[in-house]
Amino acid sequence: MKKSLLYKLLALLAALTLVAAACGNDDDDEGASAPAPAATEEPMDDAEPMDDEEPMDDGEPMDDAEPMDDEEPMDDEEPMDDEEPMDDGEMAASRTWGAYTYEIDFEPSTRGVTDDTVRLGAMTQDALYGGFTDGINARLGRANRDGELPGGRTVELVEYKDDGSDPQTNFEGARSMVENDEVFGIMVTSAVSLPQTTDYLAENQVPFTGWGFMPGFCAPNDWGFGFNGCLSGFAFGVEGADPLVSVQNIWYDFFGTEDIQVGIFNSDDDAGRAGHALYENLWAGKLAFNDFVPTQTAGGITDPTRFVNTVLEHEPDLVILSTDFAGAITLKATIAASGYEGPVADYLTYVPGLPGSSPDLGQALEGGYAVTQVPPLDDSEPAIQQLLADYEAVGAFPGFGSLVGYWSADLMIQMIAAAGEDLNTASFYQAVNIDGFETTQQSGGLGPVKWPADHVVAPDCTGMVQVVDADYVVAHPFVCYGDPGR
What we know:
CATH topology of the largest domain: Rossmann fold
Number of helices: 13
Oligomer: single chain
Strand content: 15-25%
Shape: globular
CATH class of the largest domain: Alpha Beta
Mean pLDDT: 83
Number of domains: 2
Strand order of the largest sheet: 9-8-10-11-12-15-16
């Protein structure tokens, strides 16, 4: 996958918190398009029809010559038979969703699974997602206290690696955790988890969870599971993927109308140029301006006056800062000081605790908005009450990186539990990709993700916060704009 394509992905995501600035320094060309080990053109076997509640995509109907046998329907309650262990000749279970077919065509492995424990690993960029393991430990701790895994197993985080924003370190870290630490799965969020890493994990049947903005979380990779689905599918040309509409719809909700004029500042780099093109299409006819600003790596915004003047000249209803972190801070402060009264929003500055960390930062962010793809910490919501209790139990604080870790671990726990007591790589794959799987969340949590559908699409959920008196308050509740029937 070429560097410019990775940049385009990061630009298209509505809430890629703190990633855009770091990706501007990535000079790596590593990786190629992910292979499709589980995507074939083989039709669905008569003996393994789809569940009635999850019909085949209209574009791929069942062959009339091979009808479903009315007298022998597949029982929703009949999982893989434990008394007939699968071998190469019996692994025929398959599931078709859209253009992709999922089937168990590999030898089951119990790597990382004992009678008592499931071993997991974690990897991220500390520079961007500090506290990642705090969130993981908070969620794994509850799973162990509440006995969430079948068979009385506990789950253990046996290794954590910081990839230092280096693609080769990311790859070597993943390989070490699989081959040396023998982990069952990995929780990973990193802008340098390139196909060389995620292809390796898929080839070795290692499930990995995380923030789904990298290509490994999308089809044809069938072992990557984003806690918010495949965010990058449309940007990467995944067949059947839809564009994320939340970046637009949340503002229509906010204003109560689609009749708005929008001004946008983009970072002057590959990511910003891709974003500029996206906004030209997305906000067609509604753009007051769609301009560029220098990135921090190119010297930053030394004189914001001309950008402020652009806002005052055009007077849009809304200003969106699709810039790096430093640019968002600078422009928020100066546009607010200019007397402009409309909302100024970015995708980067929802970092719990940040506004109160220093008077200067608090003042720069005061009154501004941030759009987020993780639920805001509204402690009136049951899911957030539970999350805060989980953090308190391990003595941790829910900063942004740790929230990414928390939701990554939550997804991993739920999928492992769905695989049942006889856990191995095949029973996991069967439960999630073939039988079909959907997460459950309390009110105020993430939107539900579903597989195999969300290897292609995403629930497209987002919320918005505003800084008021050096603290974040919810300006728009977390809501999902994607198709709930996926």
